[in-house]
Amino acid sequence: MPPGKVLQPVLKMKVDELFLYWLSEASTQRMLQDCLRRIKAPGRDQPTAGDGEQPGAWPTAPLAAPRSSGLEPPGTPGPGPALPVGAASSPRNAPHARGTRRSAGTKVVQTRKEEPLPPATSQSIPTFYFPRGRPQDSVNVDAVISKIESTFARFPHERATMDDMGLVAKACGCPLYWKGPLFYGAGGERTGSVSVHKFVAMWRKILQNCHDDAAKFVHLLMSPGCNYLVQEDFVPFLQDVVNTHPGLSFLKEASEFHSRYITTVIQRIFYAVNRSWSGRITCAELRRSSFLQNVALLEEEADINQLTEFFSYEHFYVIYCKFWELDTDHDLLIDADDLARHNDHAISTKMIDRIFSGAVTQGRKVQKEGKISYADFVWFLISEEDKKTPTSIEYWFRCMDLDGDGALSMFELEYFYEEQCRRLDSMAIEALPFQDCLCQMLDLVKPRTEGKITLQDLKRCELANVVFDTFFNIEKYLDHEQKQQISLRRDGDSGGPELSDWEKYAAEEYDILVAEETAGEPWEDGFEAELSPVEQKLSALRSPLAQRPFFEAPSPLGAVDLYEYTCGDEDLEPL
């Protein structure tokens, strides 16, 4: 082959090779025989005398030859190919016979094609997947649009500002605090107001494509090109709640509190709603949660502290004060030594190392030189104080699953229990041997697979908190040891609505913090210090944060950073 010549396959040779291979198959031979029989059956026409063949039936040798000796090579004398006989006859001598046979064969084939096909199975299966909600025939889009247009007609130039969006939200049939998402969804943040035409076009599109509240809420807040919500998408909505809810009116002039409160609420939303740990809330996750019900309650409940699942200011206050006590340099980042001081070093160092290993940080930008931010501390504290919720069980399971195989082996349990034994020995307390402890834990969990504990095993267990505390929280482990297992089970089986472990903890800690603040209020001379108007409002709501060193006001709304905050040197000193 000449140099530089590139070998190229000859397509025709390959096709011929494949055709010969197909023609030599036994199934192909049977199919051809069947076709010949069906062609011969209708008329059994005989070739004329001028064709050079004897009158009578068609020869059968070509049909039998492929069975015995296979495909005849080209040029070999013998009977003709097993094709319709008319092809071997002269068209000049017998045109009528050839035409008759061909038309008969065509008629049979057409008859077979006209046979009715059985109905497809999928036609009997109704639609069951509605990612944007099940469509409702009862929604009268024109009537809703007409009501919205009537509402806009009351505003100057038929343009609604942020203050007017409460009436618009009611005209749309939405809860009051959807006014922020509606305003931003229609592009109001760019011009400060929304025209009736732009809003109607936006809402009509939503009504046509989104058929339930979850899909509408996600559509209003999501970024262009997305079908999910990330943490930053909630900032405008929560900023409007801070600005307008009567239970947070004392924060209007204390802007330095806004970003901390918003960050806390966002982390609690993702802690409870984002069950996939993806950092993205989908319509399905929002639909399964109680978040939208809590948003609706914002309108009915003037006391924000009654909404304990997401919006409670008292819960934010407890979380932030606990973080502030650990963050000695007040840079809103804590390292492993800082976190180890939580609850008087109750958590083992091995578990602290696992928290900082990235097992529960969801890949966020929170680990910076071996430190975690306030956002991650929210997850830690809620998981630490309430180990019965699905998210907290997943949190600690991720930490204890050292090899990431989805199961806790006996080796992993012993790895964490070793430090517990050493700490008990240092306290002059006799530790239970690991084998005995393991038997107790297996009796509690009752794993379905012998020799390992899975996440589902722990979620079925009513005393998962006891299991976790046994292996890495020395203080709570001793508390559990002082109680009888019967009383633990009785606490778990009590009927009726009951406060969660986190709600109990937050209420107790809030009372303690308020008592400490109240005890330190009077000055030594018996006179109280003169408070600023902001401090008076904060004190009226029993919020000691105003007397604590704090930070400068955060950047504008669009630049709020949920994970990192900077502070100047002057902010590190007490006021």
UniProtKB/TrEMBL annotation:
<dbReference type="InterPro" id="IPR048855">
    <property type="entry name" value="P2R3A_B_D_EF-hand"/>
</dbReference>
<dbReference type="Pfam" id="PF21161">
    <property type="entry name" value="P2R3B_EF-hand"/>
</dbReference>
<feature type="region of interest" description="Disordered">
    <location>
        <begin position="42"/>
        <end position="131"/>
    </location>
</feature>
<comment type="function">
    <text>The B regulatory subunit might modulate substrate selectivity and catalytic activity, and might also direct the localization of the catalytic enzyme to a particular subcellular compartment.</text>
</comment>
<keyword id="KW-0106">Calcium</keyword>
<keyword id="KW-0479">Metal-binding</keyword>
<dbReference type="InterPro" id="IPR018247">
    <property type="entry name" value="EF_Hand_1_Ca_BS"/>
</dbReference>
<dbReference type="InterPro" id="IPR011992">
    <property type="entry name" value="EF-hand-dom_pair"/>
</dbReference>
<dbReference type="GO" id="GO:0005509">
    <property type="term" value="F:calcium ion binding"/>
</dbReference>
<dbReference type="Pfam" id="PF13499">
    <property type="entry name" value="EF-hand_7"/>
</dbReference>
<dbReference type="InterPro" id="IPR002048">
    <property type="entry name" value="EF_hand_dom"/>
</dbReference>
<feature type="domain" description="EF-hand">
    <location>
        <begin position="388"/>
        <end position="423"/>
    </location>
</feature>
<dbReference type="InterPro" id="IPR041534">
    <property type="entry name" value="EF-hand_13"/>
</dbReference>
<protein>
    <submittedName>
        <fullName>Protein phosphatase 2 regulatory subunit B''beta</fullName>
    </submittedName>
</protein>
<dbReference type="Pfam" id="PF17958">
    <property type="entry name" value="EF-hand_13"/>
</dbReference>
